[in-house]
Amino acid sequence: MSYSEFLAEYGGRLLDGAAVTAQQTLLAILVAVSIAVLMGLMRLAQNPLPRGLATAYIEIFRGTSLLVQLFWIFFVLPLFGITLEKFTAGFIAVGMNLGAYGAEVVRGAIQSVPRGQYEAALALNMSPLVRMRRIIFPQALLLMLPPWGNLLIELLKGTALVALISVSDLMFEAKQINGSTFLSVEAFGSALVIYYVMARLVITPAMRALERFAARRLGRT
Amino acid sequence: MFDWRWDFTFEILPRLLLATLNTLLAAGIGYLIALFVGLLFALAQRTPYGLVNRAMRELVEFIRSTPLVLQIFFVFYVGPQFGIRLSPWASGMIAIGLHYAAYLSEVYRAGIEAVPRGQWEACKALNLGARRTYFGIIIPQALPASLPGMGNYLVGIFKDTPMLSVIGVAELMHTANALGSETYRFLEPYTLVGVIFLMISLPTAAGLRLFEAWVRRRLGLTRSP
């Protein structure tokens, strides 16, 4: 079977899988960004309770493997009465894992905003909430976008693991096709190329555009 | 807690701890491959041949932006298509070693680029060859800047070893899966795997921070606060 015949036969299934991977990625990004902002801010709180909770969350999710977390959420959580469908369990696990890494990025970026900005906001009598929302966070956003670009590629790669709980994503389809045809180079090779295209030709340019947009909004260009 | 059974916990713990040794072994071998091949990847992007540099750059990007679990499958299944049979361990070590080599090459690259230009110029002025320039002058100075990244990826490779279970390497996750399907109890095996990972990765990360600080002190690189 030539490669063009392979694509004619199985290309559609790979693209279906890629669509599921894209859905998983987008939903996991939503989870990851929400958790990262929440946990990142909690880490900077004065009150030791939220600070401790956020630290525990970050250490647990960064200290163990995504695969372990995924299996735990999918196989063990039902024992506590929380049963998630495999599709939901997939993006939640990936999002929670990357959210822990993102929280450190958020924290680092907020701490990198020059002290003078805090003092100026204080001098202008802004409330802490307004200060964070109008002054600190927009500037931190600009600093955190480049590391987020890397994290999102990690996140995309992380979604490949949901195939192991039988979500029919790109990885899953590649494995199925390999199982029925034994054309491993074609099946896995094509999937690798599709992941590469998603990472380098979608995520990276999109993040660059976002960085430029944010810089323009802050008048930094 | 809910349904937790301690007798079952102590029954499976020995098997899990034994499998932990395999996990550590896999992480260790993979890391050694990555340390070495990563250096090759980094140096191969600094050859006098533009085309080679560009091709290596693209290869590293490719490895870095595709999922490790897919690469593991690729290495494991592609061999037999051409009549080469690799054991799960061999293909796992190749896949995870190359994956982290790509990451480490970026760490090395950043370290090499952080060495001041004057050092390169001095090497040129002293007419040192490429080998002595790199191994005598540049790499020893690039190393301290690379240490934090190298440490992070040591912990990273350890945390990625569960993916080797997909091709049947008998590491921790594989053993937990087996225990789960033998006994239909998932709570204890998966939770214990998580706890074992935490108990190894957290102290290792802390130890690495101390080691970096020690190296920086030894080299007189600590900034005065």
Description:
The complex is a heterodimer of chains A (221) and B (225). In chain A, 82% of the residues lie in helices and 0% in strands. Chain A is mainly α and 221 residues long. Chain A has one domain: MetI-like fold. The longest helix of chain A is centred in the first third of the chain and has 41 residues, at 3-43. Chain B is mostly helical. Chain B contains eight helices and no strands. In chain B, α1 runs antiparallel to α6. The interface between A and B is large, with 40 and 40 residues.
Notable characteristics:
heterodimer, A: 221 residues, mainly alpha, MetI-like fold, 82% helix, flat, B: 225 residues, 8 helices
Helix content of chain B: over 70%
DSSP summary: helix tally of chain A: 8
Beta percentage of chain A is: under 5%
Count of extended strands of chain A: 0
- Euclidean distance between termini CA atoms of chain A: 53 Å
**What percentage of amino acids of chain B are in beta strands?**
under 5%
CATH topology of chain A: MetI-like fold
Give the averaged pLDDT of chain B, no decimals: 92
User: So what's the CATH class of chain A?
Assistant: Mainly Alpha
Radius of gyration of chain A, whole Å: 21 Å
Quickly give the structural class of chain B: mainly alpha
Listing every helix as H and every strand as E from the N terminus to the C terminus, the arrangement of chain A reads: HHHHHHHH
Nutshell version of this structure?
The complex is a heterodimer of chains A (221) and B (225). Chain A is mostly helical and 221 residues long. Helices cover 82% and strands 0% of the residues of chain A.
